Every structure is written in structure tokens, then in C-alpha cells.
Fold this sequence. Notes:
Keywords: DNA-binding, Transcription, Transcription regulation
Number of strands: 14
Largest sheet: 4 strands, antiparallel
Strand content: 15-25%
Distance between the termini: 33 Å
Strand order of the largest sheet: 1-8-3-6
GO molecular function: DNA binding; DNA-binding transcription factor activity
Radius of gyration: 19 Å
Domain HTH crp-type: 144-217
Pfam families: cNMP_binding, HTH_Crp_2
InterPro entries: cNMP-bd_dom (IPR000595), cNMP-bd_dom_sf (IPR018490), Env_Response_Regulators (IPR050397), HTH_CRP (IPR012318), RmlC-like_jellyroll (IPR014710), WH-like_DNA-bd_sf (IPR036388), WH_DNA-bd_sf (IPR036390)
Order of helices and strands: HHEEEEEEHEEHHHEEHHEEHEE
Amino acid sequence: MSLFGQDRSFLHALPAADRRSLLAEGARRVYEPGEVMIRERDTSAYVLALLSGWSVVSVGTERGSRLILALRGAGEVVGDLAAVDRGPRSASVTALGTVEAVAVSGDRFRRFLAARPHATALIMRQLATRLRSADVERRALASETVLQRLAARLVELAERAGRRADGGTVLDLPLPQHDLAAAIGATREAVAKALRLLREQDVVRTANRTVVVIDMRVLVLLAQGRARPGGNPAGESPPGV
């Protein structure tokens, strides 16, 4: 399961001239932390090309909570599905920090794609990647424990948005516990319990909206279901048991 898009984003995969042409079609916007950039079920069709910052893609649930589907950063486009199929927004996009973007109308974005088959192919590949990721996510929700899903998320965040520092890898994305819970389909209480277990085993260290991965090897094994809490390989008992 993955919160991130492809290694090479849509904007970065475009030839430089096409990238400039697309950005020239829109207007620059700056979103403040927590500001809703796109709202689920809205009928707008503009596309946002992200220039800097991180945003959170999420959907509401029947219980009134939300499920985080993805994190989108510089070089990616959001809102493209509604622009392509002209249907209601399938998810909300919210600025995680300050986000700078270029807003392109749905009509202009469709004309841009129609004139550039390679850009259309990139968008189709992006949509297919997101669909496959959603399928993997559904399997994980059905078959993996909260601890395993949390470990997988922390590994991914460390690999894609981590910063090496003394004593470990600092996750630079300021995701509070309720967002971590929304990112793995669990309750905040369950995530707090799992984080406490990881802290007790010296796998991670936490502070206010900050997670530092101390033992990446054990975290990876937990994410793969090949270790139990305490860093023991699956199938082995903890020392003294």
C-alpha cells in the first residue's frame, strides 16, 4: 500500500515545453495549512498542478470520520479525474502545509491532453497506478493488523519524506496521530497503542507531530509481517518466553 504517487510525477515526466505550456494555462494559488483545495462531491472541474508543499487526499466515511488515500506533493496534479470524466469530485484535497499550485480549468486541461497524446498516456498511467494502489489498500485493511499497517506507513514516510539525523530518520511530514489513523483505516486510540508499543521497543521516538524512526530494520520486518513486537522474527518467541 502506498500514500505516494509514482516516483516520477506528471509534471516532471512532461517535456519542459509542455510543462511550461500547461502552467501558462492557469493561475497561481497559495493555500494555507488546513485549507481545503478541492472538496469531495463538489462539481468543479479545475485541476491543480502542485508546485510546492504537500497535500492530503481523503474521503469521508459513513461514520463521520475520514480515510486518507494519498499524499500529493510538488510535480503532481490533483483533480484530474473530475476534469477527465466531468463527474463530481471523488475526494477532498487539503493542504498539509503551505501549498503553491497552478489552477487550470477542466476545459483547458482537456484541450491540453487532446493536443498531446503522450500527456494523455501519462494521466492514464497515473490513474491506473492509483487504482492498483486502492486495490492493495483494500487487501491490507482486510488482512493486516493495525501495527503492521502503521509500520508500513512509517517505512514509506521515512523512505519518501524522511531526513537523516542523529539517532534515526525524522519524518518531515507533520502528520498528527489522527491523520496517521486516517491513513491506515484505524482509530486514533489503536494508533496511539501501536505507537506506544513501538516506542517501548525503541523502534521509533515521538514528539509533537514528529516521528523519528530509530530501528528501520525492525520496522520493515513488522510491516512485512515477519516480526512480532519486540523485533523477534515471526514464529519465534520473545527471549525468556
